[in-house]
Amino acid sequence: MIRWGVVLLLSGCAAVRSYDAELYTTLERASAGSVESAIQLLEANNRLAEKDLLYYLELGMLERLARRYDQSQKAWSAANTHIQASSAGGFVEVASFMRGMGSYVVNDKLRAYPGYDYEKVMLLTYMALNHVALDDFDSARVAIKQAHELEAQIAEQRAKQYAEVEESARARGAKSSFKELNGYPIETIDTPEVNALRNGYQSALSHYLAGFIYEALGEPSLAAPGYRLANELQPGQPLLEEALRGLDERVAARDDGMTDLLVIIGTGTAPALQSRQFLLPVNIGGRLVLISNAFPVMSATSWSALPTGVTLEGRSLPAARIASVDLMARRRLMDDMPSIMLRATIRSTMSATLQYQAQRVADREQSVGIALAAGLIAAGSALLATADDRTWRALPSDVSIARARLPRGKHTLTLQTPEGARSVPVTVSGRYAVLDLRLLRHQLFVNASREAR
User: Fold this and answer.
1) What is the predicted pLDDT for the residue at 357?
2) pLDDT tens string 338-353
3) What's the rounded Cα separation, in Å, for the pair 224 and 244?
4) Contact between 448 and 340 (Cβ < 8 Å)
5) Structural domains of the chain, ranges and CATH numbers in brackets
6) In angstroms, how far is CA 355 from the centroid of its own chain?
7) Is the C-alpha dihedral spanning 395, 396, 397, 399 positive or negative?
8) Distance in angstroms (rounded) separating the CA atoms of residues 45 and 27
9) Distance, CA of 439 to CA of 328 (rounded, Å)
10) Which pTM was predicted?
């Protein structure tokens, strides 16, 4: 019994770390224009020699904001290696309880962070954008193709996993619907916009980008499916529909001295996960008992609203929101809540049973040592009662696009935002170019291929 108390207490450091608090401060520094300071803080918060997946995800985005694409790609390649390694034996399923027993006995934070599905897809999408910034469209083609292959794997594996979670929850008598958690803010994840998503990982951005990359490489037969799926994921967007019209003619046309410019506008940061306490009904000794347990709640960030307009030297460009990481993150959480509740039920049942048994033995034998063990278990359980708040925060909250054909040379592009106009000088060359902008409060970060600088 004492051994369980020691396990609980020794696990405390990893379990009570507040990732939300760490990244809030880190991203505050970036939004103030001090990317170097943000990277220094990230390093200070990750002192272990062996870095985890989230460290590399966050570092890669910060290096990208600093326009150090090679360093960004190095960090993201390390992140991708972590993901590949964790997926080598297949996606985590209910049958693999023992491999992550710490999360069932103690806290979800003790699991090695596997990365959420939408984060894995967005990682490959942004790696493709790094290749574009380095004028390597062929490597961008490879990365974007990997993203879409990954989507197919996720679709197959997740359907199986969700079915197994439901079956295991029924067998254990565990609650699987977050709507049964007394006081849980259902409106944060169960909304019409969230439910309208096909799933929590497919992004119209990655498929539209695929279409643009294939078009730039002169492969209209591959570009068309990318544009088409982007339209299916974000229906009713004239700007997306326009990409399919005249695709073959655009690719076959002679060079007329014009550049087809794709403008990508990322705003804000991905939503935070915060730990809150709720009452979870658990069956102990044949009785249904309400036990306080921590669950993650999605919290929107307040950084940077969508631009209200895009102009190119006075000419208004149609813009459209093409992806919302905010909505994908909420859909992911809604889909994963049955699994989170199952693990919480197992932890609560085990903790309550251990405390009950230890107290009974202490009362019967009048043992101070056993009573102390029971107290340690109770104190340790309370200390570690925090939900997993880890998530890739440096991703944008929302992504919009605009597109224009313009003469090669120098131009000025202006974003109209709630905080005022933000202008960017652009010099374009070549037939196709990408300008990727990121709004973080008062800061506008510019990432562009050499054809759009």
Assistant:
1) 61
2) 888 888 777 777 766 6
3) 6
4) no
5) 2-448 (1.25.40.10)
6) 37
7) negative
8) 13
9) 19
10) 0.86
